Amino acid sequence: MFLLEYISNDLLGFLISQYDFILPAAVMVGLTLIAFMLSLFAFGSSPKIFLVDFACYKPPNSLACSKEMVIERLRLHGNFSDESLEFMKKLMKASGLGEATYLSEGLLKEPLDTSTKAARKEAEMVVFGAVDELLGKTGVKGEEIGIVVVHSSIFNTVPSLASMIVNRYKLGENVLSYNLSGMGCSAGLLSIGLAKDLLKVHRNLYALVVTIEIITQGCYMGNEPPKLIGNCIFRMGGVAVVLSNRSSDRVSSKYQLIHTVHTNTASSDRSYNCIIQEEDHEGHMGITITKDLLVVASEIIKSNIATLAPLILPTSERLLYLVNYLIRYFHMANIEPYVPSFKHAMDHFFPHVGGKPILDQVEKNLRMSEKQMEASRMTFHRFGNTSSSSVWYELAYAEAKGRIKRGDRVWQIAYGSGFKCSSAFWKAIRTIDREKMNPWSDVIDEFPVVDLYPQSTETSLYTFESTKSK
Q1: How many of the other CB atoms lie within 10 Å of CB of 424?
Q2: CA 338 to CA 348: how far, in whole Å?
Q3: Crossing angle between the packed helical segments 82-95 and 67-77, to the nearest 10 degrees
Q4: What DSSP designation does 344 have?
Q5: What is the C-alpha separation between 335 and 326, in angstroms, rounded?
Q6: For residue 232, pLDDT beyond 90
Q7: What digits encode the pLDDT tens for the residues 90-126?
Q8: What H or E segment, with its residue span, contains residue 49?
Q9: What is the distance between the alpha carbons of residues 132 and 153, in angstroms, rounded to a whole number?
Q10: pLDDT tens per residue across span 375-417
Q11: In a 3-state reduction of DSSP, which class is residue 249?
Q12: How far apart are CA 130 and CA 122, in angstroms?
């Protein structure tokens, strides 16, 4: 009551009139502060997670193919109609794909070899190639690795790819190994999140994360346009990453993992069915992409960002976002959702390459500049869509350009079937010098490439299946 003496009647009347708005807003702010303090406590009590190093697999030059070579391989060895071949030719030309992406040995044999043996050979080339390089760079020995997480969506075999790694590098009997499958292009960062959670529980360990996509058995041999898209954009590749929770590794590590955020909308039929593996009417297996893809991808990215934004945005942007949310929540005005500016929240942005329509959507919706999208578009041009490992080729691009400086904040975001979206937010511990063991090292001065897309490029070239209903 003492304070009321110093408040004018007009101001007091105004505060009382706004009671229905002020109270919920005050509660919201209070809860936000409590959540922030709890997050600080939780973060402080957990070990810090460091990215010691990573290695992206670069196939030998003998596997490099131009767009015309890919079309010729499909023409000679597939059952494609002239219309299907012309469709794939136009799509590859419009996609921004370069003239030296990589196919597997099985797809370059005469005739094509899509056997399990050929697929396993591809897996061994990519996995062992990446892991051998990574262990050589870091000096980490096999017996020091306590956690193994492997992801491959389409190709799975017995023993698993995780067991293949344990056998090759003679890891200990107490190693924790996890083999993820069928989880799409977002699962590489999902694997990082799983490894992070394990490292918070099991102290003083190295975690090896390997994410690949085997294309030998992923080539569609039918004539349904929505299934032909995969033949045009997916290429051979993979990455191996070493994480550590040992404080002594901080000095030698490249990055510290700050946040991981994962969003899963598989409970929605529309999300679940927008990318699905199935046979066509002739029995050819392929990946069907429905017309819902762009809408689903846009919605889940917004949802993922809504969770990540309060963790990384500066205070000014958080307040603008909160005020906008409260106005819309309490129907005080009919306004559009506020899209935060991430320019001051991160220094490098690496979205999954996907395809041109999705990259265009991400650039537009998040108001990103051409410079911020450069690594993603150049990665697609040079290596194609390597699925869940693509965000690591993008990070390697930035490193090869000498752009990663001490203290820089790095945001990777990937999205894929399910439908799922994952983000990983890192902080550079040191300035990264150019390295010889980088998949871009021999060509980096030739990038960025200008005029990636013909002027006639249209999203309509990406022919999608009609929405499926249950």
Answers
A1: 26
A2: 22
A3: 160
A4: T
A5: 11
A6: yes
A7: 999 999 999 999 999 999 999 999 999 999 999 999 9
A8: strand 49-56
A9: 22
A10: 999 999 999 999 999 999 999 999 999 999 999 999 999 999 9
A11: helix
A12: 12
Question: What is the DSSP secondary-structure string of 41-107?
Answer: HHHHHSPPEEEEEEEE----GGGEE-HHHHHHHHHHHS---HHHHHHHHHHHHHHT--S-EE--HHH
Identify the band that residue 335 occupies on the pLDDT scale cut at 50, 70 and 90.
confident
Q: How many CB atoms lie within 10 A of CB 184?
A: 24
Judge whether 433 and 402 are in contact, CB under 8 Å.
yes
Read off the pLDDT of residues 305-331 as tens digits, 9 standing for 90 and up. Answer: 989 988 999 888 888 888 988 999 898
Question: Cβ neighbours of residue 89 under 8 Å, at least 6 residues apart?
Answer: 67, 71
* Distance in angstroms (rounded) separating the CA atoms of residues 52 and 54: 7
Whole-model pTM above 0.85?
Answer: yes
Contacts of 216 (CB under 8 A, 6+ apart): 104, 106, 107, 113, 114, 118, 119, 122, 155
Residue 188 tokens read as 């590489």
How is residue 161 written in tokens? 């790819």
- Nearest-angstrom CA–CA distance, 158 and 179: 11
Judge whether 404 and 396 are in contact, CB under 8 Å.
Answer: no
Bond prior to 47 in cis (omega within 30° of 0):
no
